[in-house]
Fold each of these.
Amino acid sequence: MITTRSISGSSQSPRSPSSQPYLSVSVTDPVKLGNGVQAYISYRVITKTNLPEYQGPEKIVIRRYSDFVWLHDHLFEKYKGIFIPPLPEKSAVEKFRFSSEFIEMRCQALDTFVNRIASHHELQQSEDLRTFLQADEETMERLMSQETGIFKRKPADLMQIFKDVQSRVSDVVLGKEKPVEESNPEYEKLKHYIFELENHLAEAQKHAYRLVKRHRELGQSLSDFGKAVKLLGACEGNSLGKVFSDLGTKSETLSDKLQKEAHQLLMNFEEPLKDYVRSVQSIKATIAERANAFRRQCELAETIKLKEINLNRLILIRSDKVGEAEFEYNQLKAESEEATRMFEKIMRLMNEEIVRFQEQKTLDMGIAFHEFAKGQARLANGIATAWRSLLPKLEACSSS
Amino acid sequence: MIATRSVSGSSQSPRSPSSQPYLSVSVTDPVKLGNGVQAYISYRVITKTNLPEYQGPEKIVIRRYSDFVWLHDRLFEKYKGIFIPPLPEKSAVEKFRFSAEFIEMRRQALDIFVNRIALHHELQQSEDLRTFLQADEETMERLRSQETGIFKKKPTDFMQIFKDVQSKVSDVVLGKEKPVEESNPEYEKLKHYIFELENHLAEAQKHAYRLVKRHRELGQSLSDFGKAVKLLGACEGNSLGKAFSELGTKSETLSVKLQKEAHQLLMNFEEPLKDYVRAVQSIKATIAERANAFRRQCELAETTKLKEINLNKLTLMRSDKVGEAEIEYQELKVESEEATRMFEMIVRLMNEEIVRFQEQKTLDMGIAFHEFAKGQARLANGIANAWRSLIPKLEACSSS
């Protein structure tokens, strides 16, 4: 039993008695390594646990973004049906700029990623997770270079695969391919909800980002204005000049407040919205996997039927190929049963996952919007107070 | 004695007993006339007065921008030494757009312009003012087109003349021309102050305008955000969806507040700052006139001296050109005395004007900055209240 942890991903001190199992992970201390095009960021991943499968109470490893991708892809392949927690985008452009804000947001997102895996009752038992959290750096690098198949691809290619899968799902939904899709009205409703949600979320996130930008611009404008008014005050002298100076200083103070709030907006609101978008995209990938599994099950069921017909025919004509045909038939039957099992497992897991997702998202979004409103109220309050404190002086000036 | 009026220029009902003199003017009802390139705006100018020089208690005439320019230029020529109230810029670009805001700002500025003239103890007695306020439209058009000399020039040419004058003043101040300038340390201080003031004011006004723009952009951003979040709410359903919808609605409400405040900022703060800039430019034009008058006085004094020397020489030689020379000398002496009187009048008037200017400007600017701080405080208060009212609902959502 793993202790539940908050999504903020802070490492939780093990207050529980040493017999109670815990797994606590944190991603910290981003450090820029390498030069130019080769530059990358390394993170410290600290694991605190008393689980027997792990080495000792604390383990610290160094990981880079592509290691997280490795973990994500392995989990995606092995745990079909489960919504694998999403990764932050590998932004090729921003990497070169490596702004401290970008680095902070990425570190936070990676920490959230690992913690969600460690909190998930199925995913936390994954061997790949243990490898990720404990293997030394050389082993990790060796594993990365050994990757074959889709694992060997760069993230850009993975995006392409996702896009193919997405378009395939759309084709299936739109009925462009041969209609090998489930006729499950509740599932149709879910798919429709997910696709609509992604669009609206992306819109909301885009505008939330613009809101951050506008806060910054207003802050900059207030700062420039404050400086100009202070110069005016120095030029005027007398009581009017003093008023100008006070107003200028106040403007600069408020400019600071606005910049701080813009940063808070970004970290506590816009980023969670972006995270929500990624989660929904992860669900779309699982929807595609389910469609694949369904199609495979159908194809195998059809193929078996044909094989059975053929086998009966061969038996009737007493052909000497009967043995071979029977062997193939049994093989296919096993595959078919396996495919059916896989599909049904995905369905079952998805049903649980949907519930888990809805609950978690309601909580996360509630917190995010709460933070948004609180931050806005706090900022506005500070601004109102600042200007009001200036009014008596201005009144004195305009009446004198 | 003219009843004092506020520079807001609203027409004041004559509460004073009918025997007390009053002159009340207002510029109202802008109407767009003409088409395309020929389009212009006409204004109603309403004069209420009991002064004998005026026709009857109330007179309404139709005037256009170039009529105001006519009045300004005539006053500038006739009342050297007095800071003629400034006109709003003739913006050739904005005219074609004729936004309601532009029209309102221009009307307000023209109303202030005429009222300042009507309140000025010297300018209010001007015959040109009476013509402007009373002549029928055909007469006005005839007068406008009859202008010769500098009056016949378009406003852009005036700008060029002002620029020439300004550069001439700069040349004089910098001592590039022959050093025919007053050696008056207090006056030097004043000139220096005026030039410095203009720079700082222009900077402050520019940033005040940007502040208005940023308010609008933030408002627009909040509106877009609100719409996107409402769509998200409709898609989600359940309690989270309801929270989204309320947040979206609140954002749209605040967007409207921001747009209103942006407009207030423009009318009650940025425009007064711009008016201050124009007033300072008017002072610079008067500074140039004073320099011209000083130079003329000096030149005539020198020429008179030379003529006197020449006359004495001719008298000694008993030349028959003595009579002619004496006439010329007398004429020059009269001109020289006139020029000296003119210069001294300008000096005297300017001294009074500076005091009047400083007082009026301290008052105007005090009011403008007071309005600024009040408006900002009011806006911030409204925003703080709006977000705070939402927080309990969001708290309920995130804890459920």
Amino acid sequence: MWRKLFTSVPAFRALKAPCRSFKSSSRGAEKDFFKDLDAQLRAFRDKAAAAMPGSDWSPIELTPGLPPERADVVIVGGGVVGWSIAYWLKMKARVRDGLRVLVVEKDPTYSQASTVLSCGGIRQQFSLKENIMLSLFSAHFMKNINNHLCVVNEDPVDLQFNHSGYLFLASEKSAHIMEENYRTQRYVGAKVALLSPSQLKERFPWMNMEGVALASLGLENEGWFDPWSLLNALRRKAVSMGVYQCFGEVTGFKCAANLAETTDGEVLNVQRIKYVNVRMPNSLEYQPVECAVVVNAAGANSGKIASMLGIGLGPKESVSGVPLPVEPRKRFVYVVHCPDGPGLDTPFLIDYSGVYCRREGLGGNYITGMSPEETEEPDISNLDVDHEFFQEKVWHRLAHRIPAFEQLKVSNAWAGFYDYNTFDQNGIIGLHPLVPNMYFATGFSGHGLQQSPAVGLAVAELILDGGYKTIDLSALDLKRILLQEPILESNIV
Amino acid sequence: MSQAMKRCSAHTCAAVAVRRALSSGAATPSVYTRFLLKLSHYFYDVENILDWNNWLRSQGVIHKNRLFGYAQKNFGNNVAAAYYILTLRGSFRFAGQSEWFRPDSRGRFSYDFMSTPDAKIEEVDLSGTLINHNGLENLVKQNKLQTLSLRGCPEVDDWFLARLHVFGESLVELDLSHCSRITVGGLAALQNLRKLERLDISGLPRLQNPGLVRILLEEMLPHCQVSGAEYEQGLIQPDSQEQTEGHHEASTHTGLRHL
């Protein structure tokens, strides 16, 4: 158990060995002797330096990367939403060690995280005013990102923001929805313009106008950026403010259970989380982290975390029988190369058939994809790409809208998970009645990245101030799931 | 505690601002600046002084670009916009008049522009000023603006260009030369300026392929003449290839002569 500091004790005995090899040439023996002596002295010096105070040797073997034994807030999930919450918590706390925040992330390589696999777009063209306000706040955050997220002696943050805007196309039957949405967007403060087919033809001559009745173009604060830069900027700033980062998997919770009786006479099991069990990667060792508040920002895995607390595992008619309706949905993104494609003015085009396309770089590369039908959802056990989907479903719709894309080459493709809210495809933010200290910030169904700075502030306000101060997101509260009152967004990708 | 927080944020913005200024500045910094920077790596108090300096400068920029709401409410949008331009040390010309309103070398200007509150501004020269995307709020109502010169403005970035869509119906000439923060992502936002006829993009250090960007801009805005970038900029030069071919020919000639 106790690590031996001086394991080179037998080495001193080896010095006698050269004297015994009488038969071998004396010069060879001397050379060995001095070489060995040199190595032994060096090893002795290193061991002595380790024993002196100021070195990090300790007789007790500690697993590296264990989380602290207690923390005030544990954020499950190290994606852009989790780090945004950590940043805003520290920002609002103001005092250096006033709040101990721990962010637990399962995968240090972020190989399956939705954040880094996303297309990186941000738009204000929603129909719900909460969604518009969230992404407008996030755009303003990114406008002044160096005032918020710069760290001493580090490079300034460069998001590589392309301000090309989003272009939504509507057919005859959905044109009225688009006009209604336009009014809401203008009212909340988004800068959007409606275009008729003739104006579209003049602006974007490379597009085929067939079937398009109306289009809406984002003029400002819309476009796409690099999600990895935003994630790293938030992480760097949060770590510089004292947030603990741990790579490990949350495998369970230890709760204190209380019985509470509802007005109907039903007895519910209310669990207050006391410890979060964080298991180290590739090991069975786990650390129970004592905490006051847990935030579920686990993205596609939020449903799994919620089921660890028994949410959804109770009898069907009661509150505990309603599961968290967030599940991973696989979406494909294809990178295509078309040298004759549209140029610098290509916006993030979203057709009414569901296919989307945006420019990537200046070399004639485009990123495209489509949301599959409800009945044809791809398998979520892995992140393999289905190229047949592109050939059969995406290509002909894309070539119909942009004729130049009839000749293209698919150069790359990847797949990522949406943290899909099967209930109404909008974010879920708030407390669950059965777990009074777990805050949910998940289920954004593909919009988590663009709403993350604002959601981070909202959750930080919920935790520290008890209510929303900047943007009122009561409409996105978790209780709508339990009351079965969906708030639906019209025109979703 | 709040002072510590303020110092912390000053620390954060300022050192980065110093690095930003150094990385984006066209000329190498002076010996004095480099000496101060070297000292600031060794001494906390020098670092703090430099931080305060940069924080004050950034506060100055914010103050210069504040919304001139009082002037807008009491004297109208045109007078407020004119006042804003003159306080920034820019100059402008009203539509229908031919004389320019300029401040003198010390920044003083006459208040004659207040006599014509209905005149809209047609040409604005804001070169070398500290205008940023917030300051554009003061100019948003000038829908007859035809010429805008932003030569060498250090605070003009991509978000500023995205806000220029408000002048989409009137802007004819735009000069963006030597604005060190502009990248291709911001130039893509110029697609909303449909009436643009002259665009100057010389001296933009963050454009890796100025020639390619010029071709793409000309394609995006068909009536616009883009100046400041040659088509060959960013291309692999064909001259070096011709030189190697010439050497090759000379060697074969000598080889043949020996035969």
